[in-house]
Amino acid sequence: MIPSYNQVVVDRKALLANYRLLHRKGIPAQFLAMVKADGYGHGMVECSQFLHGQGCTIFGVAELGEAVTLRQSGITSQIFCLIEFLPEYADTIIEYDITPIVFNSRAIEALSRVAEKRLKKVGVHLKVDCGMSRLGVTLHEVSTIVNQINKLPGIFLEGIASHFPCSDDTLSDDTEKTNAIFEVSIEQAGKSASLIRHIANSGATLYFPATHRDMVRCGISLYGYYPDGEHEEKEAGLQPVMAFKSRVIQVKKLPVGTGIGYGHTFTTKKITRLAVIPVGYEDGYSRLLSNSGEVLIRGERAPIRGRVCMNLCMVDVTEIENVETGDEVVLLGKQGDEHISANQIAMHSDTISYEVLCMIGNNNQRLYI
Ligand SMILES: *Cc1c(COP(=O)(O)O)cnc(C)c1O
Question: What is the pTM of this model?
Fold first, then answer.
């Protein structure tokens, strides 16, 4: 295979450092590594196999298909499927020993039926909606569904889970309120002493220790980013795991008054040296970075000029000496003393680090170091 000019580099050492830091923060709570969305763009199978080797025993994905792929890759740890399965896939849950999050009667009944047939008793985790208004049963449905679970012969209630909508905001009192509602739901579920209770995502794990309970579920922080996007310069804690690199493929000199790219959304105001880079929105580099993003070349920042195209973008290298065809371009990560974080790219493209990592990571060849 001919390699692309563009490469995502995944740093295992940084991943390990983040895992150890977060695992330690969560103790005595257990640690679930969130590897949905192909490991937030870092590679679900590669990251899970690596973390598994480092002692990580619990993984979480969104869909059942991801869970099966992960199981087939040789992961013997517990795998949570965080979006519920469709009733017709109850058999798959049991076949691949996946831990389901449940909130719907039909799925529970289907699971119990199949489990009974196979002489199994499957542990399920009930998802409660404590204020996110996304997945889960509402507080007043908890006792009804728990009664249903307790009556079904093929399954048992192993855990209870919820999710925080605002835990990235350390100033908001929403997380404490949501946590209190979760407490009520645990009481409603009964036999609370034996249930595995989990609600903390990265924000709650880092900023709200009282919410850790029996297990924390960390995603973005595992990949080196604080969910509120502000700490990267201040703290020597989490380390970004992903870098994204390319090469300069052409350098040219343009006179004053020259339009650049589709729609000529930028016109040169001085004699300009322009470098062309083979990265575009097809590579997960958003078109919203047109005239707003920056890249690193020879350790210095070069601003995007004109629109980001499908496979190409152009940057101004007038102020950077000796830029040549073939020079390394860093779109995300470190070069020399400069650093571009996923938060910076997110700021320039009206989104969050999560989306930047997914888009870049899942649209390029990955190299693991
Ligand atoms: C994605 C997800 C997490 C992890 O969130 P981060 O903010 O990335 O740590 C935890 N729990 C659920 C249910 C999720 O969907």
Answer: 0.94
